[in-house]
Amino acid sequence: MNPEKSLPRRSLLLGAGAMGCGALGLSACSVAPIESPASTAAAGPSVPAGTAVRVGKLTDVKVGSTATGTVNGKAVVIFRPDDKTVLAYDAACTHAGCPVTPSGADFTCPCHGSSFKGSDGSVLNGPARTPLGRLTAAVDGEWITVTA
């Protein structure tokens, strides 16, 4: 192997993640991203880590469905199990870091085919072996908030 032509694994993953984040908003998903002008403004660099950020309106995500959003520049996926509850996960696939996308009530990784349950983030199909990282999500009036 020629060391000048190979990339370190870390660089490869970081590059893939950067390319994937741009594609996340453009991917054909079952539900459109739930970002709004208010959530984009709230997610600016002045929002300290650990602060709940509005990612979209509750009415934009039907019960039993999924959506995407962004918190402090980080892609997140949302699942709404019932009228009063929302769940959020880091959108990075636990296999190779590609961004997962909504697929009905679950999430799918377009890179290698892993799929995850929307209800708990657990792996449905590999090659991923660990669940999606859970984030703190809440319903705040008409808004879905996520802390990342």
Topology:
Layout lengths: L8 H16 L12 H6 L9 E6 L8 E6 L2 E9 L2 E6 L10 E3 L2 E3 L6 E3 L5 E3 L8 E7 L2 E5 L1
Antiparallel strand pairs: 1-10, 2-3, 3-4, 4-9, 5-6, 6-7, 7-8, 9-10
What does this structure look like?
- There is one protein chain.
- This protein has a single domain, classed as Rieske [2Fe-2S] iron-sulphur domain (Rieske Iron-sulfur Protein, 3-layer Sandwich).
- The longest helix is centred in the N-terminal third of the chain and has 16 residues.
- It contains two helices and ten strands, in the order H-H-E-E-E-E-E-E-E-E-E-E.
- Helices cover 15% and strands 34% of the residues.
- It is an alpha+beta fold and 148 residues long.
- The N terminus is likely disordered.
- The radius of gyration is 16 Å and the shape is globular.
